[in-house]
Write a structure and sequence with these properties.
single chain, 438 residues, 8% helix, signal
Length: 438
Amino acid sequence: MRKAFLGLASLALLLSGGASFATQSARSALGPAAIFTTDPGDIWLFPAELNNYPRLLSLELDSFPFDRNRMSFLGTWSDDEQKLGTFGAGFGDLFNQKNIEALIPALNAAIANNPLMSPRNSIPLPGNKFHLSYARDLGLVVAGLHIARASGDKSYDFSDTIPADAVKRQAHSGIWSFEAGASRIFGDNIYLQTGLGFQKISFSSEFELSGADPIYWEKVESRESGGKKLDVRLFYGMTPAIKIVPALSFNSFTMGYTASYADTMHLPGSRYDNTGGKYSQSGFVISLGTEYCPNPGVKLLAGLSLEGSGIDISDSNNIWLVSTIPSQKYISREVSSIVMPGFQAGIETDLLKWLTLRLGASQKTTWINNKTRFADNAATEEEAFSESDFNICFGLGFNFGRLTIDALLNEDQPFNVGYLLSGNPGAPFAEISLKYSY
């Protein structure tokens, strides 16, 4: 039971970050300390930062070997003087998309295995359709906008071939994301970045038997599903080489569903009619760190963080509340966690003109509290415990003029170089990114 609780708490911490889209390999190699420096990946946190990268092509591979489902692309363009602003277009994961992909399979398992609530058509995972961005210097501030769409559809209509039954099956999923941000320079040593995002999530799976008398349909559909995020970061230059960097990130995510059917005479007393559940998660990270550049080509990062997150699950069907005790049924669960403090450090240094080394390290102790309420006897069980986590990241950057290739190495690198030299089947890279400035 403890492992299940820890898994939920760990998920809460993972979801609490505001970063989205494909992970930037260079940022991943620096670990959490990457928040204390700038990178083209900032575009997905702070939409106005698009204006700083007017002509960029970026390809991100979030897995290795290559998996097209974990790939993202961004292309930006602006006129020479940026009088028209900067335009961006691409594809890749939306913020919270991985969270949605983690919850839909449980619904599909219920659709397949519970005939009393089954629309008999699995909900497709949303696939990204587009990202569109725009940023422009308005004088007082630089403003940016970002809109993105992901969707999936799976529909069948047998009413023409089987008119006696007139069977229709429809399923879909969809995400709309809207983000806006502004950046501003104060004096000659303060730079403020902000980003605000809103998300609408929908999904449904429906089965219709219009040839029956009376007409019968079954449906599972979304309820109160969406997300929000806020990111704020400030660079305060104490000296040309030292910057103090406070940052705040907040993210919330809710996904709910209802299950119902039209003909109560068809399956009288079904416990799945007008039932449902809701999964709510929110989290924040407050960071304070420094960026120190003692020499050109050398960057040192270090900081502290306060992190908190919470998960609240209620589910009358036990789809998102799977009991570890078969004889007991959960009705709700609350998981809260806090990290105070977390430690982050990173280094980026040019070993050669064409080779950059990146190292990142982080350590944190998480205090977790789990409260579960059981449906049968309305009893409440509460558990509190802590877990410590230490991580080291290692990455390389290859610079060829306008082209840059960044790689995040797998956890056992460089001690095991994988099949490139040794014949070991392990892949040496976890993430690869390519950036080209034109």
